[in-house]
């Protein structure tokens, strides 16, 4: 349907029909939905009429081929112009086959794998009738108190941008019109939601525009450059104005400067929330500010529905703004092929064939194995099949390993850790006990754990957060494990047996009482449907851990936010002429995190040597070549992540102490060496200056190459312009 035909369709629409296209409602509002009529409380208070429902443009959270087809068919019978509905849902890290949470996928540093997880999620979701997913979330995160860090890929703008592109490619493919196994992606939350003050959800964000552009905007831009079809507004303020009503952010930057002409949707209720934010006196003013800012779809509040017509009639809003929004929505429906095939990829038969298929489960097992980070290992891992293992802890036989935003996943169908271990090596040498619940415990549970541990060669502890402790509205001030779990560790530690801790969680934790008490720590995050099988593969050495942290683990919550790419100060700790007291430091804890960005261990060891730079000078036309030799000095095959960072020693504004610029994963056999070559260009040295101009500076730089952001070899060069 060419644009002129869409324009003709818009001209046939009444103002009420146009406005209803901008409304998104949840499934229970619609005829044909199995939950139809179950509209109570806040949903009932929306005051939506049957006429509005018949003309609504999109549905939130409705899935399942049978139900979606029923709703779409009923809607098309009731809609005067036969305009199909868009079906949207939060398919974040899997539909029914659940993959590791995005923060865990980030730790894989594997773009092909990330793209594949999104493609599989899209295939399952599309067969179930979904057209749009509210993913990827690409918010830069530096504060683990914020529960939604699990939904991001970490604290680095370059790496987040690479993952943003990979997820968009996976969800959308190359041809949304013809390829019905894909869904449209919606990048979120625009912008800077990950910088909420105090790590508290929905809270204020306040930063300079230079910092916004330098650190927080690149990943959104990368997603859009990859062709992402939609953008979701953030709940937070940006420069004092909530994002959903922020004309400068949405129209001036997103649409005019970046050229985005896709659909912009509010987050749930965000239009009406401009009232408590304090920039709108009532719903009418909230509707006015949102449409002026360029928000096309209002999710789950009725400000547009109740007030846009009046705003147009009294001359406050030009009807052309509504026409623009409707056109963008109709263009997306056309691109998805909904006018020709309103059911698109929805298929009861295909849904049954694809969902939780063996191929998808194998991909989930692979992704989980690639996402678990070995944080500590004092010669206790990998386990041996003949060892007697006491598997203890609230996650030993728990299916709560899918994590937040896995609402369609089944905990019952997830492979528990105990099941994964038994399936791999049998049950003869494995005894299990709960030890405690996640936040409480009994003397009987502890006694059972002690009995199991007394006869074991190695104690494996399965500990962590239940899934409601992270994700949206999952902010925590105390990011240690619950005290009952720390007490369990302390009690079992008195047996003087080797102890391994497996962590199931959605954020970097303060690991005091864990890291210092046990012999090995494997960070499993929420590993998804095949989590137990993947962890068993790692525990018994069937696979070698290869993941590396993309978010620093704090030494203490008192450091937060703590991240590798921070600025220096005028009085840095550890400088050659630094005083003992009058430097930037804590008196009671280190400045540095417990575990830095890029960190992770393997069952083998790697040595870096012969690091060199091709020249001590770089010019605009002549890049540098940086080489390093990496040798597997251990006894088993392993995968190493070689990381390249730079530092601008004297910029026009202060520059981070390190910035990731490139990385390479290599697999080496025992005693094998490989020389790696990186090319560093002038373009990679550019940054936003005080006037927001994006350029490089002449002067001295450091290049750092190594296995993480801390353990690096330093090379110096000069840029001459």
UniProtKB/TrEMBL annotation:
Its EC number is 3.2.1.21. The keyword Protease does not apply. Coiled coil: none annotated. Keywords: Glycosidase, Hydrolase, Signal. It holds the Pfam family Glyco_hydro_3. SUPFAM superfamilies: (Trans)glycosidases (SSF51445), Beta-D-glucan exohydrolase, C-terminal domain (SSF52279). It catalyses: Hydrolysis of terminal, non-reducing beta-D-glucosyl residues with release of beta-D-glucose. It comes from the Bacteria. It is an enzyme of class 3 (hydrolase). Residues 640-709 form the Fibronectin type III-like domain. InterPro entries: Cellulose_Degrad_GH3 (IPR051915), Fn3-like (IPR026891), GH (IPR017853), Glyco_hydro_3_AS (IPR019800), Glyco_hydro_3_C (IPR002772), Glyco_hydro_3_C_sf (IPR036881), Glyco_hydro_3_N (IPR001764), Glyco_hydro_3_N_sf (IPR036962). Belongs to the glycosyl hydrolase 3 family. This is beta-glucosidase. The lineage of its organism: Bacteria, Bacillati, Bacillota, Bacilli, Bacillales.
């Amino acid at each position: 349907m060419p644009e002129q035909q869409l324009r003709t369709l818009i001209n046939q629409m009444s103002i009420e029909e146009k406005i209803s296209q901008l409304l998104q409602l949840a499934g229970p509002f619609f005829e044909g939905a199995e939950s139809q009529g179950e509209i109570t409380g806040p949903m009932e208070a929306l005051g939506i009429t049957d006429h509005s429902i018949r003309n609504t443009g999109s549905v939130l959270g409705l899935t399942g081929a049978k139900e979606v087809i029923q709703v779409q068919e009923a809607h098309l019978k009731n809609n005067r112009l036969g305009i199909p509905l868009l079906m949207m849902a939060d398919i974040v890290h899997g539909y029914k086959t659940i993959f590791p949470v995005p923060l865990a996928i980030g730790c894989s540093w594997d773009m092909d794998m990330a793209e594949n997880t999104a493609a599989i999620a899209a295939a399952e979701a599309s067969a179930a009738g979904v057209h749009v997913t509210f993913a990827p979330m690409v918010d830069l995160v530096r504060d683990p108190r914020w529960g939604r860090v699990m939904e991001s890929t970490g604290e680095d703008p370059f790496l987040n941008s690479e993952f943003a592109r990979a997820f968009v490619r996976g969800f959308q493919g190359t041809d949304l019109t013809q390829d019905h196994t894909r869904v449209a992606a919606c990048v979120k939350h625009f912008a800077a939601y990950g910088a909420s003050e105090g790590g508290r959800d929905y809270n204020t964000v306040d930063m300079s525009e230079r910092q916004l552009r330098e650190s927080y905007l690149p990943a959104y831009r990368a997603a859009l450059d990859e062709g992402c079809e939609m953008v979701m507004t953030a709940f937070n303020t940006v420069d004092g104005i909530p994002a959903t009503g922020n004309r400068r952010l949405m129209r001036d930057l997103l649409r005019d400067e970046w050229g985005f002409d896709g659909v912009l949707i509010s987050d749930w209720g965000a239009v009406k929330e401009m009232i408590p934010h304090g920039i709108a006196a009532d719903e009418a003013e909230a509707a006015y500010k949102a449409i002026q800012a360029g928000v096309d779809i209002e999710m789950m509040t009725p400000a547009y529905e109740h007030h846009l017509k009046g705003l147009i009639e009294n001359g406050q809003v030009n009807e052309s703004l509504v026409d623009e929004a409707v056109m963008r929505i109709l263009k997306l429906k056309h691109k998805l092929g909904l006018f020709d095939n309103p059911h698109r990829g929805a298929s009861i038969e295909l849904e049954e064939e694809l969902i939780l298929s063996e191929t998808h489960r194998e991909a989930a097992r692979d992704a989980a194995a690639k996402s678990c980070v070995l944080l500590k290992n004092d010669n206790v891992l990998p386990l041996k099949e003949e060892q007697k293992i006491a598997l203890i802890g609230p996650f030993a036989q728990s299916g709560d390993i899918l994590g937040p935003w896995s609402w369609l996943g089944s905990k019952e169908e997830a492979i528990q850790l105990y099941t994964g271990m038994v399936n791999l090596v049998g049950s003869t040498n494995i005894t299990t006990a709960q030890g405690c619940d996640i936040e409480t415990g009994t003397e009987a549970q502890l006694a059972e754990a002690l009995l199991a541990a007394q006869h074991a060669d190695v104690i494996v502890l399965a500990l962590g957060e239940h899934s409601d402790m992270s994700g949206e509205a999952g902010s925590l001030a105390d990011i240690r494990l619950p005290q009952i779990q720390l007490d369990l560790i302390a009690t079992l530690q008195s047996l003087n047996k080797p102890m391994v801790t497996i962590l199931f969680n959605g954020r970097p934790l303060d690991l005091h009482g864990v890291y210092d008490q046990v012999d090995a720590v494997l960070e499993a995050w929420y590993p998804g449907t095949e989590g137990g099988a993947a962890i068993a593969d790692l525990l018994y050495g069937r696979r070698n851990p290869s993941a590396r942290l993309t978010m620093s683990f704090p030494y203490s919550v008192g450091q937060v936010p703590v991240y590798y790419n921070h600025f220096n100060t005028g009085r840095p700790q550890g400088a050659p002429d630094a005083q003992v007291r009058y430097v930037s430091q804590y008196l009671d804890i280190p400045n540095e995190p417990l575990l830095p960005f890029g960190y992770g261990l393997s069952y083998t060891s790697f040595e870096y040597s012969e690091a060199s730079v091709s020249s001590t000078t770089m010019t605009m036309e002549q890049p540098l070549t940086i080489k390093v030799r990496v040798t597997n000095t251990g006894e088993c095959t392993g995968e190493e992540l070689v990381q390249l960072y730079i530092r601008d020693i004297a910029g026009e504004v202060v520059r981070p102490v390190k910035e990731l610029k490139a990385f390479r994963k290599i697999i080496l056999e025992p005693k094998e060496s490989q020389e790696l070559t990186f090319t560093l260009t002038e373009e990679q040295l550019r940054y936003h200056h005080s006037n927001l101009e994006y350029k490089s500076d002449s002067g001295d730089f450091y290049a750092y190459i190594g296995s993480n952001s801390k353990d690096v070899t330093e090379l110096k060069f000069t840029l001459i312009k």
